[in-house]
């Protein structure tokens, strides 16, 4: 049986007295140092320190020359002639202070006589907030408490637990941070209503203090172990009913479950009584990664919850897609009896796809035909056919995962940008920051009531008029006359922008160009040929590479001046797109050599000049040659 608190206190006093005897840090052969009332005092108390020489330990030449000196650590605090010295010391700080008595004989070195340590501390505070817990039905009892301020003295904390039938358990610790003890015993549930009382006592040489008793039953302190072996099973591989299962300790009565999608911060909470290790979940979303955790409790009103279990992370099964694809198209004539139809579509959202999309089913059908004429399955988000240039066509696109197919999206293939009163008016782009463009327009006059939807389409402008990248688009209601395009918009890039007005099978569009940020082009156009035609010359050039245009080109300038002339060059300015990379000039004098070059302008400024060419117009009957500046013009 463990010892009582009184027995531990007596043992502690014996240990402290032994330590005090050892506190004389010198052998003290020459004399003694005595401390009254005690070597251990409370903060604010005074202490008397006396030093005396033993017989025949005086200064050898002159006993009247004895001079005793008292040091506090290395600082002299008192001295006295003779064989003894006494001094009262006050104001000692918390902790241990060393005092040393020395003998000085004339001018010779000081001789150590003896010394003593004095410890200053406080009575222990009453331990507060004592509580005990047993982790698991077979765990051991651990109690914790608040020690309060440190005593600065050797202090023992003795924990005592009293149970039924006069049973007592006790354990102690003496570390400076002693605020918990594991009794090493396990309380059993045979009599869950039996009462237990715990108390902790703090003891040092100045006194002791005990906590208020903490009274509890087995149900109050046993905290179940967290549930383990968590798993989930969905009936018929469907999220309509998923069963969460786990293992628990035998006496668990109540569980709480929490779960959330991996991209969510908020938890769904469920309480379950007598769950017996399983619970049905009916609100999970398909093809979603979830995190599940479970906690347990032994009684509805008593005791504490276990820690949360280790998380189970798993993905729910797929379900058939529910959303419909957003489909767009382009239509381009190839020759008099063929056309190229390209279909594009956007990915379904995660909540619409409800699984991994494996492929898309695309159907293109001639309206007048009885059966689908073309079908294809693709993993891409676009498809292109070359078909007959006559007839009317319709397309259908659906997405498929492992469980099924989405409802097909049907779209009629018509001439998107033909002439007609349905075309939107005054389409205008405006930069919004560095990565978006605001597009605005006016409704198509008297045809505005017929508009069912607007589609804003954009793609990077490609020199030469070809659009190689697939278009991007967004849809807008007929009441909106503006849209912010921010998807795949890069600064210093020119975009072809079209606004389509849709009404049933009819569609019309208006187009413009725009950029989110611009500056002057990095280079000028490259003149590749100059030819003479009927008294004028025709200048042809290559477009500036797209990465050097730095926005939308608004104008070209063609400059010329006579060779070896100091006069300002003349120039003509051409709106971008008016002529297909060529332009005539009829103001050059025959048989005069000219230097020509070109620049390009954005809204931010003019580019550097492009390459220079020399040219001399020969007359109406002579073909002209364009020559590089380092070659002589014909005389």
Task: Describe this protein with a few key phrases.
635 residues, mainly beta, five-stranded mixed β-sheet, 5% helix, disordered C terminus, transmembrane, Ig-like_fold
Describe this structure in words.
By secondary structure, the chain is mainly beta. Helices cover 5% and strands 48% of the residues. Strands 2-8-7-4-5 form a 5-stranded mixed sheet, with no helix packed on it. Strand 42 and strand 43 form a beta hairpin.
Rough outline: elongated
Number of strands: 47
The profile of the biggest β sheet is:
5 strands, mixed
Rg over CA atoms: 49 Å
The low-confidence runs, each spanning 5 or more residues with pLDDT under 50, are 16-26, 621-635
| SS-based class | mainly beta
Query: What's the helix count?
Result: 4
SSE layout:
Blueprint: H1 5-21, E1 31-36, E2 40-42, E3 47-53, E4 66-72, E5 75-81, E6 84-89, E7 95-105, E8 111-121, E9 128-135, E10 141-146, E11 156-162, E12 168-173, E13 180-182, E14 195-204, E15 207-210, E16 214-217, H2 218-221, E17 222-223, E18 228-234, E19 242-247, E20 254-261, E21 268-273, E22 278-281, E23 289-297, E24 312-315, E25 327-335, E26 338-345, H3 350-353, E27 359-366, E28 374-378, E29 382-388, E30 393-401, E31 404-405, E32 409-413, E33 425-431, E34 437-442, E35 453-460, E36 472-476, E37 482-485, E38 495-503, E39 506-514, E40 526-533, E41 536-542, H4 546-549, E42 555-562, E43 570-575, E44 582-585, E45 593-602, E46 605-606, E47 613-616
Parallel strand pairs: 2-8, 9-17
Antiparallel strand pairs: 1-3, 3-6, 4-5, 4-7, 7-8, 9-10, 10-13, 11-12, 11-14, 14-15, 14-16, 18-19, 19-22, 20-21, 20-23, 23-24, 25-26, 26-29, 27-28, 27-30, 30-31, 30-32, 33-34, 34-37, 35-36, 35-38, 38-39, 40-41, 41-44, 42-43, 42-45, 45-46, 45-47
